[in-house]
User: What shape does this take?
Amino acid sequence: MAATDPHPLSQPGEAAIRFEAVTVERGGISILDAVTATVPKGSSTAIIGPNGAGKTTLLLALLDEISYQGSIHIIGNGTGFPVIGYVPQRLTFDRGMPLTVNEFLAMGFQKKPLWFGIRRDLQRQSLEYLAMVKAEHLAGRRIGALSGGEIQRVLLALALRQEPDLLVLDEPSAGVDFQGEHLFCELLDDLRRLKGFTQLMVCHDLPTVTHHATHVICLNRKVAAEGPPRQTLTNETLTSIFGMHMGLVNSRSMPNDSAVCTAPCCQRPPHA
Assistant: This one.
């Protein structure tokens, strides 16, 4: 079970999450093998790796959705246990449901049945969070009529409504076109700076990672390397985790390392 420490020993700005020798096996098959990594506080951390590398499994272990060996420490800010917001890769639901976006966002916050109407304060809050993700125009739309990108914005609004310390996203832009993915990640960048949360995202798209991540964990059952993108996304590392020549990454497109993080793992070269 992931341990939460509301009164961390480390100073703010260091680590938000520490994975220590996290191991997951299913049916005798190793999914994660002694994964040790750090997510810096306030960072936009991306987990990259090929299909079957264990990226989603690591998130599920963090969320206590699966059993694992090792330990996961989620470090609070000294004022209470950290709040985690989660945006899944996709939402499975009956698209024929007569449920509006406003009603969907109110479900977990209103005790009385929705057919009695939504409280005015909840309606106002829903509109505020939809506005944050540039989706206030969707409030009255039926959720089953939304596109994939619109649903992802609604799910992000729902996660933000919890005022999370840690925002966890599992390929949130999967199925969204490149332009939509780029805009979604820019929106996340703005929100992270505004709200001050730590972002941990599984991402399959390397150009998106190089443009938006401030910290990278390269995973293929084991951690091949981690650290700021400029130090970590080398040709050798990418070849080792993807098993093929990936070509050189344009370092000019990456965030400035000086603005990345202050965690100890970012102050040393990536490990093999």
